[in-house]
Design brief:
Largest sheet: 13 strands, parallel
CATH topology of the largest domain: Leucine-rich repeat, LRR (right-handed beta-alpha superhelix)
Distance between the termini: 77 Å
CATH superfamily of the largest domain: Ribonuclease Inhibitor
Number of strands: 26
CATH class of the largest domain: Alpha Beta
Number of domains: 2
Number of helices: 1
Radius of gyration: 23 Å
Helix content: under 10%
Order of helices and strands: EEEEEEEEEEEEEEEEEEEEEEEEEEH
């Protein structure tokens, strides 16, 4: 009896035959990276022993069949990079063994994409480690029930139409290391409790409508290497506590409403920081770059601020090496 059917990385075309439902002993079905089109047959819901379903990178143009909810042994679903449309069915909440759900990038010139809200039934997927729903047209708010997924390590909701605030419930995700919510219309302030997610390595909240100040609690994110907060409406000054984020490699706070001066504590990051972008804010004062000690710095972008010309002589070689700095408004 057939248990594994792997036909990925070929040039198969046409539709998935409904007769696939006869292979009731299958544990793995992989048709990824082909040229398949048409529907995902509802007969796929008969494959009750299936642990892995991999259909990514085809031209499947359909909604997600409700019968997928019958596959309660599923651990992995990958149907990204297709032309899926319609809602994520509530039946997905029945897949309590699921650890990896990837439905990202199902768009075709904004005509085809997964839409509607993220179903509240997602709260049942307590084994979930990886949830990728980015690059669709999902709307509504981030469900409060997401806080139940305490084993989640990766969460991608970027490039959708999600709105509302980032609720405190998201801070229950104590195992999360990669959190990306960029390119939505999220508003309100950044929750202080995000600083409790001490396993975070990547945090991307860019291109939203977030306001208020950058939480002081971010100083606790000592494992964070990448922080993207650009293109929001964040205000107030950059607090000195940002210098406590000792692993930070990329810091992009550009295109906000930040004011005050660049904190001297940034010199604590001389061995880690590779990219620093503070452009298009209202930052004033000097550039305290630690007398040229930023040995790891590759990009320094400070354009469109109100910085002064009081530079240390030791910085001469750094300034000449980074063209973006020369474009600033230096008084």
């Amino acid at each position: 009896m057939l248990k594994f059917l792997g036909l990925s990385f070929n040039q198969f075309y046409g539709s998935i035959p409904p007769e696939i439902g006869h292979l009731t002993h299958l544990k793995l079905l992989s048709f990824s990276k082909n040229q398949l089109s048409g529907l995902i047959p509802h007969e796929i819901g008969r494959l009750s022993s299936l642990n892995g379903l991999s259909l990514y990178s085809n031209f499947l143009k359909c909604s997600i069949p409700l019968s997928l909810g019958n596959l309660t042994s599923l651990i992995y679903i990958g149907i990204s990079n297709n032309l899926l449309f319609g809602l994520i069915p509530n039946e997905v909440g029945s897949l309590k063994s699921l650890s990896d759900l990837r439905l990202y990038n199902n768009t075709l010139k904004n005509m085809n994409a997964l839409s509607g809200s993220i179903p509240d039934e997602i709260r049942n997927l307590k084994s979930l480690l990886n949830l990728q729903l980015d690059n669709n047209t999902l709307n509504g708010s981030i469900p409060l029930s997401l806080g139940n997924l305490t084993n989640l390590t990766t969460l991608y909701f970027s490039t959708n139409a999600l709105s509302g605030s980032i609720s405190n419930e998201i801070t229950n995700l104590r195992s999360i290391s990669d959190l990306q919510l960029s390119e939505n219309t999220l508003d309100g302030s950044i929750p202080l409790a995000l600083g409790n997610l001490i396993k975070l390595v990547v945090l991307d909240l860019s291109i939203n409508k977030l306001s208020g100040s950058i939480p002081l609690s971010f100083a606790s994110l000592t494992s964070l290497t990448t922080l993207y907060l650009y293109e929001n409406s964040l205000c107030d000054s950059i607090q000195k506590e940002i210098g406590d984020m000792k692993s930070l490699s990329i810091l992009d706070l550009s295109s906000n409403k930040l004011n005050g001066s660049i904190p001297l504590s940034l010199t604590n990051l001389t061995n880690s920081l590779k990219v620093l972008s503070l452009s298009s804010n209202n930052i004033v004062g000097e550039i305290p770059l630690g007398h040229g000690k930023f040995s790891s710095l590759i990009q320094l972008i400070l354009t469109n601020n109100e910085l002064s010309r009081q530079l240390s002589p030791e910085l001469g070689s750094l300034i000449m090496a980074i063209p973006d700095l020369n474009q600033d408004h230096l008084e």
